Amino acid sequence: MLASNSDTICAIATPPGKGGVGIIRISGKQALPIARRISHKENLTPRLANYVTLFDPNGDAIDSALLIYFKGPHSFTGEDVVELQTHGSPVVLTMLLRVLTQYGARPALPGEYSKRAYLNDKIDLIQAEAIADLINASTESAALSAQRSLTGSFSTQINSFLENLINLRVFVEAAIDFPEEEIDFIGEHKVINKLTGLIADLAAIIQTARTGQLLQEGSTFALVGAPNAGKSSLLNCLAGVDRAIVTDIAGTTRDTLDTTVDISGMPVTFVDTAGLRETSDIVEKVGIERTLSAIEHADFVLFIVDGSVHSGRVSLEQLVPPLLADTLRQKPILGVINKSDKITGDALILEGIDSSVVISAKLGLNVDSLKDRICELVGLSTSYDATFSARERHLSQLNFALTFLQTGFEQLSYSGASELLAEDLRQAQTAMSQITGAFTSDDLLGEIFSNFCIGK
User: Fold this and answer.
1) Cβ partners under 8 Å of residue 182, min gap 6
2) The CATH number of the domain covering residues in 218-378
3) I want to staple 9 with a disulfide (CB 3.0 to 4.6 A). Which of 2, 80, 108, 393 is the partner?
4) pLDDT, tens digit, for every residue of 30-71?
């Protein structure tokens, strides 16, 4: 049977495993009757904690609990909601869920509570997604940015921008529909000026959203270089623990090893890889194949070179086989000249790599500068005070809207095509409305909420 939004749902809202307290939430029209039935208590005042005993259908006590009733629409989902706070025994919680389903509730689907809150206009789609982002945040900065989105910071900016966009659209279409009024919006530069302002405002929102996305999703860097360049030492230095085996023997690393590090509030996953070189060793060949796969799936590459061995101007082809050099160039590269404590000759210059930094992974020298360069490479802003959490979906729609506005600007500036501008403004409005969910397909909603945890 297909799930219905009119069903009464139930789910455990606390993490799996044993704990001092376990929470079950019930939401829907039958939440209050089910609560009365399982607690044998008729008088349940909204928002008042009731100490009750919970019973099964045979009248046997299952556990004592705090029961709180939230009368809709004054609840998270906008429906009648009942929260049961029991002892955190997985056995007890499972027994209670079974009883609740016997009384007419069904197990909630992933994200169904948040989806109902969205459908009942308690939150918009940005805020719903921010709930999942807050739960999954891996750094303090990510958690704070998700909290800002949850409280409406991102939504406020989108809605304010939409209001200005709609006002401009109305003005343009009025000039088209009522030409006898002689609204010379081009000559007076009213539309041009307003459109220029909208483009600038949207570009600023995109920059902030990009930072928010990085704080939530992070980036992946493949640590790549010749054997014994210091890749594993650098991984251990960045992680602050000995994650990788480090020896003076070239080719020690045969497989990929990854760890995630908080760099300026952004979760960065570093993948240590096997050294790139020509080899007849079967096992090492497999390791190099995995290195190439790691490069393919990474966002960026840290190309690590032993600065004590090489000096002067050196190209990638001189450090790794040419075919591997071609693979490396498919990704943005940051050069890392390692072992600065052992450099005695001329400085090493990496040809074909725009940016590089000199460090000593073993001694931790200049690693902070490396972290700063990493932030610059990914485009991470240094100020997070106004940052909100954002996703690739949001950035995609923001960029769509920006493209339509820029196209409209060109249509108006070079050909005076106000009709085409009106269509571009309409398309931009549609793209922006999809961000908050004012205009969203059911398929998209299903995809978004399916990634939530059950109980939220």
Assistant:
1) none
2) 3.40.50.300
3) 108
4) 999 999 999 999 999 999 999 999 999 999 999 999 999 999
